[in-house]
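Can anyone check this?
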Amino acid sequence: MNESANVSELDLEIVNALQINPRAEWSRIADALGLSGPTVARRWNALAEQGLAWITPSPGQRYLSAGWSAFIQLSSLPGESEALIQRLCEVPAFGTVSMVTGSHDVFMDCFASSHEELMDIVTGAFPALPGLTHREVVFVTKLYRQASEWRSGTLEPARARLVSAEAKTAPASYSPDRLDAALLEELANDGRASWAELGEACSVSPQTARRRVERFLASGYITLRCDASTAANRGLREVTLMLNVPAQYVEDVGRYFASQTNCRLSAQVLGSHNLVVTLWVRDYLEAQAFERELAERAPGSTVISRQAVVRTYKRLGHVLDESGRSLRVVPLPLWREGSGRGVETPAGSEP
């Protein structure tokens, strides 16, 4: 049986439900799909065991209030790209690593729990890497949309609403500790692990595990994200645009791209350009349509570069095979005890 045969329409609906609400009870998803809870759980477990879909911690909308992030483009000597990429995949801070078209060979994102840690990575991680000839770094300053908010749209809107998560009240202010970091690492290995499994792994009660996880999810700093292999993202191609947008238009353009259903990422950055947009399209010509819209919305804007993903080797800590299946996990350093700026949110606000 080939890979595409392993991902049925029903499987795609389950994946979409978990994109909307990654830790929804199986009974809730089952009710929305007209199935039984054990059937949904069995089908998801089969997908996860084959590396066809997975759930993992991801930066939330408020991540930049406590953590740090950058996008990095690299060029390498001919014949050295594969060795370079394999080394990059082993670095925990490099969440997603892709081979791309264009003037650079590799595009990746970088996460750190403090500004000092990010600077250490940017200045110290590259000299010993094989075949590296050029590096370009831009720092993320504002997120308009990120991949955890992308939805496949497989479910009908009425069914999607049935599985949507209720908004949680955000904690007023707190800082991560060792238990939070340990829970995040366990969730990186299995984002659907039960409260009992999480508690046992971290030597706390299931109730404590649940309370802590729900607290950092409510903060908006960390969220959970459901990703899938190439087979479950049928026919979608990844394109990233590096844009220079006049300052008076950058907010409007960032939010415009964020509102598009095929936008995976829209981020304001500090560097040689000021906006990075990633789109998942079925036809590369769709990118040109967005460029025409950009020219009308923000006169004077410039497309600095366009790149299409040839292959993704690592996605948010999951090392992938040629078919995009998850092989293993290198947990991201999203949150470490005593680091970062802490999370401060208005009392009663929603994440």
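Reply from J.R.: I decoded it. The chain is about 30% helix and 30% strand.
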